[in-house]
Specification:
- The chain has 139 residues and is mainly alpha-helical.
- It folds into two domains: 45 residues, no CATH class; 82 residues.
- Helices cover 59% and strands 12% of the residues.
- Strands 1-2 form a two-stranded antiparallel ribbon.
- The longest helix has 28 residues.
- The chain is elongated and about 80 Å long.
């Protein structure tokens, strides 16, 4: 029984024996992405990852504004606690993770628990911009 030679769908000059587990497209080693259940083509992996991006356009704005405002308040409280007494620095060091959790939970509530890599970057930018004034005053 003779088998036909398969060629990669993206690289027609490359022979292959691999197929995408989802769409059955012939793929070469360069095009294959290893997943826990087998190899997939890059297009199928991209399509699968887009399912997890659930954010809406207004989430970027509300998440950024919420993170910025809470970061301004949190950085002010941390810097205030650091200068109160000798143990203020220790108190500030212990309170910082708590303030971070408060910011994260508030942003999650405002955005409706939707997620996206771009949304995380917008929120991170808001946190940095919110903490920047107090950080610059410390210098």
């Amino acid at each position: 029984m003779s088998e036909t030679t398969l060629y990669c769908a993206n690289h027609p000059a490359v022979e292959t024996v691999l197929r995408c587990k989802k769409c059955e497209k012939p793929i070469c080693v360069k095009c294959a992405v290893r997943t826990p259940t087998g190899y997939q083509c890059k297009e199928c992996v991209r399509g699968q990852q887009k399912i997890f991006e659930t954010s809406k356009p207004y989430d970027y704005i509300t998440g950024f504004i919420t993170a910025t405002i809470l970061s301004i308040i949190g950085s002010f409280l941390i810097s205030l606690a650091a200068f109160v007494s000798f143990f203020g620095f220790i108190i500030a060091f212990a309170a910082a993770p708590t303030i971070g959790v408060i910011i994260a939970e508030a942003v999650r509530a405002v955005t409706g628990r939707r997620r996206s890599p771009k949304l995380y970057k917008a929120i991170l930018a808001g946190i940095i911009i919110g903490a920047l004034p107090m950080a610059l005053l410390q210098i």
